[in-house]
Amino acid sequence: MGRQKQNKPRRPAGGTFLVRDALDADIPGLCAVMPEAFGLMGGAAWADPDYVAQGLESCAAGLSGRQRIKVAVEGSRVAGGSYSGLALAEDGQTAHTQLGVIHGIAVRSDRRRRGAASALLTACEDYLAEEGARVMLAEVRPRSVGFFAARGYETVPGPALVIPTTAGTYAHRQSTPTTALMWKSVSAAVRLEGTAMVGLLDT
């Protein structure tokens, strides 16, 4: 089984959680927590150990490692997990190098409101920024809108975010009507005009 390339683990200041890239040994913990991150957007698949194992293999082998499954661990137990990566073009292979997507973050119910979700979000953002992303995009379930808004994310006023790139126009659409697309830029040159993002061009 392939293993995704490991980044240095990070422990949030004042926190008890260690955030690191997921290992094969974390698969049972990920299966227990990650379905909550996706709900009707494919959450059932994350309960399958084979599916999660394939995800780790994909992180190890695909797109120069430009996607990551991370865990927040407390002691030896997985308290939460996240999945993020660079946005993919329609061919499913080409990465939009300046657009990072946070696909999902989930924390066990008995470990919520203790900083694990914030630590995972920060780890996702740091990883994506290291890969060159200038904009972070998240598809957010209703109860998590406030969490992302408090961390600088804005809601896209529509079911899709349209991004002109040098390779053509890219559109990131909601998976279900009940979710919200939210975004945050790390570049002052990038702005949103309606549902179109201006100032972000892939090289």
In a few lines, what is going on in this structure?
The protein has 203 residues and is an alpha+beta fold.
Calculate the mean pLDDT score and round it.
84
Alpha carbon gap, first and last residue = 33 Å
Overall geometry: globular
Strand order of the largest sheet: 1-2-3-4-5-9-6
Total beta strands: 11
Description:
The chain is α+β, with helices and mostly antiparallel strands and 203 residues long. The protein is 22% helix and 34% strand. The protein has helices at residues 27-33, 35-38, 49-61, 116-130, 145-149, and strands at 18-21, 67-74, 77-88, 95-107, 135-140, 154-155, 160-165, 168-173, 180-185, 191-193, 196-198. It has a seven-stranded mixed sheet, sandwiched between helices. The N and C termini lie far apart (33 Å).
Task: Give me some keywords for this one.
203 residues, alpha+beta, two-stranded antiparallel ribbon, 11 strands, globular
Helix-strand blueprint:
Blueprint: E1 18-21, H1 27-33, H2 35-38, H3 49-61, E2 67-74, E3 77-88, E4 95-107, H4 116-130, E5 135-140, H5 145-149, E6 154-155, E7 160-165, E8 168-173, E9 180-185, E10 191-193, E11 196-198
Parallel strand pairs: 4-5
Antiparallel strand pairs: 1-2, 2-3, 3-4, 5-9, 6-9, 7-8, 10-11
